[in-house]
Predict the 3D structure of the following.
Amino acid sequence: MKDDVLSITTKGLTKSFGSVMAVAGLDLIVPVGTRFALLGPNGAGKTTTVRMLTGLMRPTSGRASVFGHDIVSQKDEVKAITGLLPETPGLYSKLSAAEFLEFIGALNRLQADVLYDRIDSLLSILGLESRQDDLLESYSSGMKQKVLIASTLLHEPKVAFLDEPTSRLDPSASVLVKELILALAEETKTTFFICTHMTSFAHDISDVIGILNEGELVTVGSPDEILESARASSLEEAYLKIVGRKVDREALLSWR
Ligand SMILES: Nc1ncnc2c1ncn2[C@@H]1O[C@H](COP(=O)(O)OP(=O)(O)OP(=O)(O)O)[C@@H](O)[C@H]1O
Ligand SMILES: [Mg+2]
């Protein structure tokens, strides 16, 4: 595949923390405009992968690039074309939602007229326009999450990394975010790299799914390919078969 159609490439990407191998030799190719969902158990290495791909953490070994920019030697270029919704984001609680988004827009050097239009549109899509001047400290956790999603998409990044975007969102807000991602991917060819535990969300949102287990990519394919290869009728069933976490009832009560 030619470089100009590739959004993310990794070759042997590895991160260890002492004796813990968080990501073990990840080889991945994500074409431009793909909606890629990364699934995997707690501690599988999803967030570590995202941190490396957004230039926040140096790999122990291996390589990766985003739109041809090396994640180590060109991390500023990588940061300029990516958006990140972190797993545990920080917010400036003494700012209102509108002020926070203005601040993020200024950091990304957005022109004022474009910025204000986008803030209005995003806050209205996310149902926050009537609360946009309230301080973020007064927001519920789901409302904060919506503002953070808006801040990730505000500068129209070429690649948006969303680490568990639907955590804290109610079901209708999750559907809204799903539709927003699908619309943006179609309109703007944004590449989405989404870590999630919600298998039905992953099924609906993505055209490619990767399953990471103990730092290794154990499956990559379209939702249908994964269902077929696991002989499963839902992604949740396929996931459980692939990751293989069987629980026996006796063991569950053994602590008593
Ligand atoms: N800064 C760190 N220092 C030490 N170990 C770390 C650090 N960050 C992650 N790890 C370890 O790396 C492994 C992968 O963690 P990571 O956060 O990437 O998992 P995850 O797939 O995102 O899990 P979750 O679904 O719980 O968010 C875990 O064993 C974790 O303890
Ligand atoms: Mg994580």
Remarks:
- The chain is about 40% helix and 25% strand.
- Residues 17, 20, 22, 40, 42-48, 87 surround adenosine-5'-triphosphate (ligand 1) (CB under 6 Å).
- The CA atoms of residues 104 and 151 lie 7 Å apart.
